[in-house]
Design a protein that fits this description.
By secondary structure, this protein is mainly α. It folds into two domains: 43 residues, no CATH class; 67 residues, Trp Operon Repressor, Chain A (Orthogonal Bundle), CATH 1.10.1270. It contains six helices and no strands.
Length: 111
């Protein structure tokens, strides 16, 4: 079991796995992009949202075969971040690939 330890003694008692499961259930219950935006804008800081959006843009570009350098020049994302995202895209749990496949199936929408 993962225990949340960042933030001091009071945070050490938080069961991170259980908290994440509850969070994932809430996210899965959201029905529209608008609902997701409302939820994530309440949950996350602008910096956190920007980091997630940035990573998703890197995933999209990597899936199209763009080079790290091209992605870096077009987005300003560091090559270290691009490398980390590429590793998760290749060797992660498959979430990026699943999301890419689903967004590519939706006609008239961009991933």
């Amino acid at each position: 079991m993962l225990k949340q330890s960042k933030g001091g003694a009071s945070a050490a008692n938080i069961d991170l796995e259980a908290d994440l499961k509850r969070l994932y259930r809430v996210v899965a219950s959201l029905k529209t992009a608008e609902e997701c935006a409302m939820f994530f804008e309440d949950l996350c800081t602008r910096t956190e949202l920007a980091a997630m959006a940035e990573r998703w843009e890197v995933v999209r570009r990597l899936s199209k075969g763009e080079s790290y350098r091209s992605i870096n020049q077009a987005t300003g994302v560091s090559t270290a971040t691009i490398t980390r995202v590429a590793q998760w895209l290749r060797f992660g749990k498959g979430g990026y690939r699943m999301a890419l496949a689903r967004t590519q199936r939706v006609k008239g929408k961009t991933a």
